[in-house]
Design brief:
Blueprint: H1 14-26, E1 29-30, H2 31-39, H3 47-63, E2 67-71, E3 75-78, E4 86-89, E5 93-97, H4 99-108, H5 113-118, H6 131-151, E6 157-170, E7 175-187, E8 214-223, H7 229-244, H8 247-252, E9 257-262, H9 268-278, E10 285-288, E11 304-306, E12 314-315, H10 325-331
Parallel strand pairs: 8-9, 9-10
Antiparallel strand pairs: 1-5, 2-5, 3-4, 6-7, 7-8, 10-11, 11-12
Helix pairs in contact: 2-3, 2-6, 7-9
Amino acid sequence: MEELRFVAPELVSGREVMVLRLLGRLGMVSSKALFRLLFFEPQGSTIAAQERLMYRTLRGLRERHLIWRLEGPREVVESTKTPGRRTGKQGEFLYGLTHDGRELLADLRADPSDVLERLISRDRRAPSPSSSSMLIDRAISTWCASVIDHARRTYLLAGLTAQARYVVPDEEEERSQTLGAVLTLLFDPKGKPTDRPVWDLPWHNGEGSDPTWRIVRFAVEVDTGLGFWQALLETANTYGRLTLGNVYDDYLGGAPRPVVIVLHPSRADKVGLAWHKAWPGTPAVMTSARQAIHDQHGALWGRYVTLKDNPAQLANLLDGLVTSIDAWEKLVVGWGSHNASTNTAGGAQPRQPGGAR
């Protein structure tokens, strides 16, 4: 017999709603990324207390069937008990939105209807995604989460949007293009510090934007090493054709800058040549899984190279807005403190969340 469920809206906290909104946008988020984005507070309690709050929150959402959880791939490590023996280490937990969670967001009117329609959710009892699908989804989610984490550290960030598996109709080919993810950052040059909690991400729904705001759009793609030459050409060609045809303007407000993450460095030359050939003058940039994340400033300041140049040149994701890491550090001084008197952005990083809970 089907169980009866009822989740009273007043019993859902603001932070719980933010967890659901983030999961629906990114599709699959690791416990580490969730902690960094929604539970780590540099001026708050101890890391251990913040971790306990995260796992307590996630456990409550799972018990109400609003989110699902999977264990990520296990890591082979040296045994701590038997020297010379290798053993499997528990993988990091991955979380996502269930259909029930998405329905609750609709009941709460947490987002506009067009945003709710694009949120990614699945039945909590559905089979686990394939390993290849998880690999791509996790790489995209990790990159987006890192960019969001570091972009929100400056009070100039007025808003942001993100959506994995964003579908754009391609009328010329009579089909649709599915982007790995779309991420938009809106910066207000006249922005001022606020008392907004650090976990309260400034999702932007299109209202209240200003002509003076500077907007940066990214489309994220992951190369797993399995795509054939023709597939690489087709992907690059489609981005170029839809950009030149102003198709993205109708759906995203402007053309995104493609960011290609190559999981196997040996593929870099092949991927770069395909984009260079299929879309001359492309604004796309490329990075590897290892080089995408800067030690202190995350994916926002990772190592990227242009795909239009031969040889490739170093690229700045915030080109035209922020000239260098040194300039960026001045914009994130005092992140997490309301008086902006202490620089925490380049300070000690929290330890990673623990194991199973």
